[in-house]
Amino acid sequence: MLNRNVDLKNKFHFTSLGCARNLVDSEVMIGILLKAGYEVITEPKEADFLVVNTCGFLESSRQEGINTIQDLFDLKKPDAKVIVAGCMVQKHSGLLKEHFSNIHYMLGSGDVEKILDAVKSNTSGAEVTSARSYLEWGEVPRMISTPKHYAYLKIAEGCKKRCAFCIIPAIKGPLKSKTQEQVLKEFNALLSQGVFEVILIAQDLGDFGKDRKEKGALASLLKEMLKVQKDFWIRLLYLYPDEIDDELIAILKSDNRICPYLDMPIQHINNEVLKAMHRTTSKEEIIDILSKVRKEVPNVVIRTSLMVGFPGETEEQFEELLDFVKKVPLDNVGIFKFSLEKEAYAAKLPNQIADDVKQARFEKLAAAQQKMVRKRNKQMIGRTVHAIVEGFHPESNMLLRARFYGQCPEIDGQVIINDGRKVTEFGKVYEVEITDSTDYDLIGTVLGLVPGKKGMRKLALV
Q: How far is CA 78 from CA 12, 97, 101, 301, in A?
């Protein structure tokens, strides 16, 4: 029996591109293949199947997809098969076929569960249905690919908003939410696997349940999660300003197991630009929301995204955005240049901004934000935070890396630990004294392990 299986082609390598929602879909595909007896490996040269889950949101992400697929074709064994899934397949399969005539199989962004069929198929093919997004329902296996102490929990897909610059509704389709019962089932399953930090994700968490005309569904969900008598962190990713109401702020204040951290996409601050973007909040409302959150939750960390170069953006309007960044405290900012996507409403607008102007504005805004981040980081020196020590620093085994509640995995800075003698286990929460800072990272010394629920009551800065 063993001899017959020696040459069995069952090794696969997986590459997941784009957002965390894509990563969850990738984890489902990995879980399906593992359950079927396939083996995941990290070295693409040794794989029999190379799977790429792509992002098609922006031109830059599509180019990343093409480059990644080309690299895999260059590395793979002669008889290995390349399978491409995700948003690029759903909306840009022609572009993929133009570049690669020898893709073995293509799967649309809603056809995640067909991965086993794709791998088993003896002939080239495709499965691209009208289901433009995928929500796993717990019964389908999922293999967590993040470090064991944190995981993403996707509670909805698609989008009901119609921002002028965005093609997410065209790619992912209309809003689809899981039921509260299903989310709670997955939440408890993650905790039972040893996950400590559960990161809730959707295109906009605040729209959760609105496809079923449920009011206050996110607040209700969070309250039910907090009834679970365990230690954990819940992190909220992507809450539009108009979705942050008094009830949600009260929940943030009610239990330190919800990280006082909000990812609140603002995009711009000039009212004319916001209106042209089809955003539903004004400058005055945004500033009011920011002020209220900071007043009610003093230790909150706010992350946002800002865009430069939207069609028609004048120099005066850009300067207003620049002045806003200099005066209003924002902890972390992702800055993007407007990308002309043909299916977006904004692609048809007049007064498109030249690329060199976009770049100049991008650099000017980024420099201003970096200066503000340095200032805010210096204010952290001397404080003590509770942080998850995640492992060795990639540049030196003499250093460790950690995150306090104000730092989200992959997208924010980290705490560089230069004295970790009291660290006994990675993935645990420790008390860390901040002793210095760099441009985006903090530097600290571990004082000791935070024990159980005592630590959760002191999650905020102390």
A: 15, 20, 15, 50
